[in-house]
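Late entry, evening session. Most of the bench is empty. Finally got around to the prediction I had been postponing all week. Sequence below, unchanged from the version circulated by S.P.
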Amino acid sequence: MPHARNMVLFVTDQWRWDTLNDPSHPAILPNLQGFREESTSFPNAFTTVPLCTPARGTLFTGKLPHQNGTIDNVQGTSFYPHGKLHPAQTTYLERLAAGGYDVAFVGKWHLGDGTILDRGIEDVSLSDGGDLPIMTTADVTFAEPRKSPYYGTITDGVPLDEQRVDVAIEKLEELASAGRPFCLVVCLHGPHFPHHVPKEFVELYDDLPSDFMPANWCPQFSEEGKPLAQSASYWPCQDTSHMTQDDWRRTAQHYWGFCSYIDALFGRLRRAISENDLDESTAIAFTADHGEMLGAHGWFDKGPFFYEEVMRIPMMIRAPGRDQGISKDAFVSFRDLFPTMMERTGGTALLDNEELQRSYWQSTADHACYVYDAYQGRQFRFRGIRDARYKYAWSPHDIEELYDLEDDPGERRNLAGDPRLGEVQADLKSRLFDWMNAEGDWLAGPGHHPPVGSYIDGRDRNEQHQHVPKKG
């Protein structure tokens, strides 16, 4: 049986699970669907937290946000413009490099400007972890008019994500010829908004029905029985009050076009792996840090909630000589992708026993747990658990949520407190708190918890933070 010694991780940003796993979905993804046939799929894969920096912090350290300190987004014009993953937190990249792997990183990092280089990883390209600002954009030309802040149709130029894949393909030949095991991480911006997509991929969805709307769309903030945290927008892009039905249609068209564009880029990288004779020695993963609301519940982007649209992520792994074209139903976490890949590439000596037990190949879990702590400087303390049918969310300063995903897949009806589901709710809460205690989560214990939405620096929730670049 072939034994992989190399790993390639292809990580997207804000990619929805249903594009690849719902057979009725209109997304056109021939390369990824082909990759599915040679991979093991994990349809019950979930992010740890539906927010870029905290999710990536768990991916690269294997620790939860309260354990590694990355509880909110950093960089750019966010509330913490100079934040970063603390230098004391060791990443899997550093472990692999110390263990004899050649490590190359291409693309989005979002854990602190320049801080991959700071960690001694020298092969860093087109990345804010190296020498590029996180919001760097390519010099491209757009069709007119470009009215929406969410999308734009590109008519000329090479988008940054394509440049990143070009670099990754070049690196494959270098890494393959070095004769040492390697880890190549390719992290793209897309399909995170703004959805700036080449025209040919937008046109794939020109036949989207003129009356298209998400199945569980509703006017924003119109649902009853929802937590206070869901009663306001906390970032300009989250205010969807200006969106018409056609705006939603065009936004979805560009989002899915973005997915199709990245599908084509992934296909190029996958072919390059074969062309460099790496098929029998390389494990390949495709995934995303979290999903995208895209109109569900009236929201765009993401927010302080645990809806399926942002929690569930695509996860496919090709390991040479292993199961191909099959699906494993165990619940797995984005947090544990590196241990999963390292188990298949001879890196087990770099892992502890707990990490090995969390590997997807070992997991028999029938539920997933996840967290939320902060967004753009505001406090939103939530913890959640989901099994095959029910989802439960708890907060020390907001109402509980309980959804029956079998009867209400759109999560419109909050059933928390319904006496008919009292035992279900109590059991899920008990299991959630057992997990929190096992993970050393301070939220499980007594203590003072500031009001939902209040700022970490003490400001009231009603004060609107001005998201403007810092001068100088």
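Two things to note before I forget:
The longest strand covers residues 378-387.
The chain is about 25% helix and 15% strand.
Will write this up properly tomorrow.
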